[in-house]
Amino acid sequence: MLGKVALEEHFAIPETLGDSSGYLPGKTWDELRARILDIQERRLAEMDRHGIEFMILSLNAPAIQAIAHAPTAIALARLANDVLAAEIAKRPDRFAGFAALPLQDPQAAADELTRCVRDFGFKGALVNGFSNGAKDGEALYYDLAQYRAFWEVVERLDVPFYLHPRNPLPQDTRVYEGHRWLMGPTWAFGHETAVHALRLMGSGLFDAHPRLKIILGHLGEGLPYSIWRVDNCNGWVESRHAYPAKKRICDYFLANFHLTTSGNFSTQTLIAAMMVVGADRIMFSADWPFENVEHAARWFDHADIGENNRVRIGRANAMRLFKLGT
Fold first, then answer.
1. pLDDT of 236-246, one tens digit each?
2. 149, 267, 270, 308: most buried, per Cβ within 10 A?
3. What percent of the chain clears pLDDT 90, i.e. is strictly above it?
4. Which pairs count as long-range contacts for 269-276, CB under 8 Å and 24+ apart, including other chains?
5. What is the mean pLDDT of residues 83-91?
6. Is the pLDDT reported for residue 33 higher than 70?
């Protein structure tokens, strides 16, 4: 399929490059480093070779979110966004951007998102999970009360918020001891992000801000296949669930969330997600440079989903959600 739009595609600046080491075997570092620092050469060649017309770019993980010192996070987010804007300006016909946000300081994050949308035309934000707090071992999740004013700005700007994974903090990784292969994208990324998304849904955030649009990668971090059980476990027990939100969790999942295919190139999984959320809420992505554009595109172009759905997922849904080409 020609004309695909991809939107979980990462880059790094020298100051965040080291954050991408350790997820893959050391022998791959030279290749990964070359991939993630490049924007205008190999990336464009891969796009042209595999029918990707447009990419929305985002900073690598965890980067800004792992900085406990808020002023440092604010300065680095601004630097990364300035660099990205300059790169997009070279090829605005092929690239757009997601803002990196210093959510250690909710007001600073709101201000930076506003700047990026207003001045650079960025299409929203991609945030790498919870942010490190100033206290040692503190994890700041965005259902907390101090983030409500930030979410008000996101809703007012009418741009999507991509909740991207990161590993849990060290004190929360004991379950993986002896099985470190489960860290990162194998399992820990999805588990951590799914819990964060459920916290947002149960917190009442979407009752207060019903027009928020949240994106999850990797075909929903397992949530489409678990969301029924979240709402319906122990169904014979009256008032089994007690949380601030007014509706069922699945109501928010179906109304406020969109999914991408990033790094999850399984036709069976895609079809299952389509049956839960519908083809109009799923978008193509590759997860470059951690996954190959070739693998993503070859799979998607031949997946047994029908041509109408292929066009929706490969292009039309992203064009509509991000107001591309208007």
1. 888 778 899 99
2. 270
3. 95
4. 269/219, 270/219, 270/303, 270/305, 270/313, 271/305, 272/224, 272/225, 273/219, 273/220, 273/224, 274/305, 274/309, 276/224, 276/225, 276/227
5. 98
6. yes
**Is the CB of residue 193 less than 8 Å from the CB of residue 221?**
yes
Cβ burial of 79 (10 Å; 0-12, 13-18, 19+) is middle
Token reading at 159: 């741009």
Give me 13's structure tokens. 């600046």
Q: What is the average per-residue pLDDT within 99-120? A: 98
Q: Write out pLDDT tens, residues 195-209.
A: 999 999 999 999 999
pLDDT tens digits for range 43-73: 999 999 999 999 999 999 999 999 999 999 9
- What architecture (CATH level 2) is domain 4-233+253-321? Alpha-Beta Barrel (3.20)
Q: Which of 142, 149, 140 is nearest to 169 (CA)?
A: 140
Structure tokens at 256: 């406020």
The catalytic site residues sit at: 287
| Cα–Cα distance measured from residue 52 to residue 198, given in angstroms and rounded to the nearest whole number | 32
Residue 158 reports pLDDT greater than 70: yes
Please report which confidence band the pLDDT of residue 235 belongs to, taking 50, 70 and 90 as the band edges: confident
**pLDDT over threshold 70, residue 193:** yes
Cα–Cα distance for residue pair 326/35, rounded to 1 Å: 31
The structure's pTM equals 0.97
